[in-house]
Specification:
Elements lengths: L1 H4 L6 H18 L2 H7 L12 H16 L4 E2 L2 E2 L5 H9 L6 E7 L13 H6 L3 E7 L5 H11 L10 E6 L8 E3 L9 H7 L7 E5 L21 E3 L6 E3 H11 L23 E2 L13 E2 L5 E2 L6 E2 L1 H11 L23 H10 L7 E5 L4 H11 L9 E5 L9 H18 E3 L3 E3 L3 H5 L2 H14 L10 H9 L14 H8 L7 H6 L11 H15 L1 H11 L4 H7 L1 H5 L12 H5 L2 E3 L7 H23 L11 H9 L8 H6 L2 E6 L14 E3 L4 E5 L6 H14 L7
Parallel strand pairs: 3-7, 14-15, 18-19, 19-21
Antiparallel strand pairs: 1-2, 3-4, 5-6, 5-7, 8-9, 10-11, 12-13, 16-17, 20-21
């Protein structure tokens, strides 16, 4: 200690200078790699890491073990900015995607039925699959669609893409809005869910022809083809599946080959020719069974199952034949009466699922309208099934008829006005809620599924539903407006000038122009109701009914226009009674005969009192019919009328309800059966009181 005090002390400048010299000497001797190792360890191979270095290494190891996504090999992963991520995504290569598209024939709001897809395919429309890129433009998309569907050239870009909603059957479609540059590949990929959803091409102002194309049409150029084993006609495989069902069942093994020399003597009614320009000539033919359907091109009759296939190739004949315009619905040619119309509608019911409604008897009409509109799981083209709230009844047809009877009657009172023949009420609220469209659907469903027909329309209303035009020869009908009757009988027009001008008449108002005034009033009344009738026609198109009405106007008229009174009367009920009587001559048989006579007198009394009935709760003959069978109308089909029976049973002892003072008749609408309690109907007055109470309060299935 004392010796060090005698040594000379170095100043700070000299100390720093010596330190620099020492570092320079070490750097010149130790290699760079050993220098980096020296930053972690002490000099020399035998040196050990310090405590701080061990702690730092263990911390890095624990962080990498706990957070492998953030740390890799003891080091934190370099962070990437959001912009760099999007830049990498934008540079990613876009793979083309497949999109399913379906070309419709006209501007329709609903998707086509699966059963109609084959008809679209045969016409060069229907479903196709195209491959799209992300950078596809609207112009390129239009060219691609025109190449896929040659018929789209006629549209001249007057089309939009639609997307169908959820559910089954015919679904409602909504238009896909265009972007500023139109439809693009990126947009369609997003809208279709990457190609998972089918998009529909809807013509806006045009209507494409649905007539079947020949097998060599350019629309079928890419489709795989095969030749028929029986008639050797080459056609696409999709068409061959349908053609085989017709050709194989009508082809005889003993085919007669006609030589070229006998071409002029061929009897076409005995053979079915299906010529195709390369593989088939007029020598090839298939025999034909008897039929009464006429080909619209050559005029020759063929079986119903073969007419479509024949007509699709008939236009390719080398013969000189005229080609008149084909009818839109050749299957309606067999309709010749009202019963044929009903049978045609029944054949259009799709039984793949059911259209189910659960309603209350207390407010059946209003609730029925709302539930009918809300139901999205099925459509009214499916069989209707009704369930009444709080009742155990199972619909086997009677509940459906009861519901349809109530709905048609309610529509007549709520949406139409008039005495006997009626026209739609001018109600903007009902029109805005689409109640007239629902009414049309209920009318078509009722006729097709056993309900009543709406036989209460005025003649001009039916003519407008059929043709879309007003009948000017009926504008003076007094039922259109009380003002028509008043003006027609007036000797001076001065008091009616304001009313006449409110009808849109702007001409001279005097007696000399009375005819023009009456026409103006009638046209005013009818034109106000045109939107309601147009909406009603949309509903009637549910089963394609409106098209049948256009093709068979007179055959369908009696289903809508008010004519002869077709309501149920006392004779219609009593003539179809089938009583289960006791042995003739016994006391029970005598009482049963009295009950039947009381029932007949009861119906006659109701029939006489009906014209004076003003209350809605009054008992009528149709209401008795509805109480027993579920329907208040005559059967529309003649076969149903002939098979209709009301089974009448008699309960003499009332064993089911012991120790009681009163008992009421019971009915089973499912089996059209009524049971009378004989002990409580000894005279007519007691019969009348018991029957009236039972009809008024015994419509449900909730009795014990």
């Amino acid at each position: 200690m004392f010796g060090m005090e005698n040594q000379p002390q170095l100043n700070s400048a000299e100390t720093q200078e010596r330190a620099r010299q020492l570092l320079a000497l070490i750097s010149s001797v130790i290699p760079p790699q050993e220098q980096r190792q020296g930053s972690q360890y002490e000099t020399g191979n035998s040196s050990r890491p310090t405590g701080s270095q061990i702690a730092h290494s263990s911390v890095q190891y624990e962080m990498a073990r706990s957070f492998p996504g953030l740390f890799r090999n003891g080091r934190k992963r370099p962070s990437t900015s959001v912009s760099s991520r999007f830049a990498s995504l934008s540079n990613k290569k876009w793979k083309p995607f497949d999109l399913s598209i379906f070309l419709l024939s006209s501007n329709d709001e609903l998707t086509p039925l699966p059963s109609d897809e084959l008809a679209f395919m045969q016409a060069g429309l229907g479903k196709r699959t195209v491959s799209l890129d992300r950078d596809l433009t609207h112009v390129e998309l239009s060219r691609l669609l025109q190449a896929t569907y040659p018929k789209m050239v006629e549209l001249q870009d007057r089309w939009l893409l639609y997307k169908a909603g959820g559910g089954n059957g015919r679904r409602k479609m909504s238009a896909i809005p265009l972007e500023a540059e139109g439809y693009t590949g990126a947009m369609l990929r997003k809208v279709s869910g990457g190609g998972k959803s089918t998009l529909y091409i809807v013509p806006l102002q045009d209507e494409l022809d649905l007539s079947p194309l020949p097998a060599n049409a350019p629309e079928f150029a890419l489709m795989p083809k095969a030749s028929c084993k029986h008639c050797f006609a080459e056609m696409p495989l999709q068409m061959l599946a349908l053609h085989d069902c017709k050709c194989a069942s009508h082809t005889s093994p003993d085919l007669e080959i006609i030589s070229d020399d006998d071409d002029d003597d061929v009897q076409f009614p005995e053979v079915l020719q299906t010529p195709v320009p390369v593989q088939m000539t007029e020598e090839d033919h298939c025999p034909q069974q008897k039929g009464d359907v006429q080909c619209p091109i050559c005029g020759i009759s063929f079986p119903v199952l073969l007419i479509e296939e024949h007509a699709s190739h008939c236009g390719q004949r080398t013969e000189d034949t005229t080609s008149p315009e084909r009818e839109l619905h050749p299957e309606t040619d067999d309709i010749s009466c009202e019963e044929d119309v009903i049978m045609w509608l029944k054949s259009k019911v799709d039984t793949s699922k059911t259209f189910e409604l659960c309603v209350s008897r207390d407010n059946m009409f209003e609730r029925g309208l709302k539930l009918w509109k809300r139901n999205k799981k099925a459509t009214p083209i499916n069989p209707l099934r009704i369930k009444f709230l709080g009742e155990a009844g199972i619909d086997t047809g009677a509940l459906r008829k009861e519901f349809l009877t109530t709905m048609v009657s309610g529509i007549e009172q709520r949406l139409f006005e008039g005495v006997k023949s009626k026209m739609p009420k001018y109600s903007v609220n009902d029109f805005d809620e689409e109640l007239f469209r629902i009414a049309g659907e209920i009318f078509a469903t009722s006729i097709a599924q056993g309900g009543p027909a709406p036989r209460f329309l005025q003649r001009w209303c039916y003519n407008f539903l059929v043709s879309g035009k007003l009948s000017l020869d009926q504008v003076r009908d007094p039922s259109l407006s009380p003002l028509i009757t008043t003006v027609a009988e007036a000797s001076d027009m001065t008091d009616y000038i304001a009313d006449i001008m409110d009808c849109g008449y702007t001409g001279k108002i005097d007696m000399e122009h009375k005819e023009n005034i009456l026409r103006a009033i009638g046209l005013h009344v009818m034109t106000k109701r045109m939107p309601m009738l147009q909406q009603l026609r949309e509903g009637l198109d549910l089963y394609g009914f409106s098209q049948v009405m256009q093709a068979k106007t007179e055959e369908c008229r009696s289903l809508f226009v008010a004519g002869d009174d077709e309501s149920v009367d006392s004779y219609y009920i009593t003539s179809h009674l089938a009583p289960v009587m006791s042995e003739r001559g016994c006391n029970k048989h005598h009482k049963e005969t009295q009950i039947l006579e009381h029932f007949q007198d009861f119906l006659h009394e109701l029939e006489v009192a009906e014209p004076d009935a003003t209350s809605e709760d009054i008992t009528t003959v149709p209401s008795v019919m509805q109480w027993i069978t579920g329907q208040a109308h005559r059967h529309l089909l003649l076969s149903d009328r002939q098979n209709f029976k009301i089974t009448v049973k008699f309960d003499h002892d009332c064993h089911k309800m012991p120790n009681h003072t009163i008992c009421y008749p019971t009915v089973s609408a499912c089996t059209d059966t009524i049971t009378f309690p004989v002990a409580h109907m000894s005279d007519y007055e007691s019969f009348k009181n018991v029957m009236t109470t039972a009809i008024k309060y015994g419509a449900g299935f909730d009795r014990a």
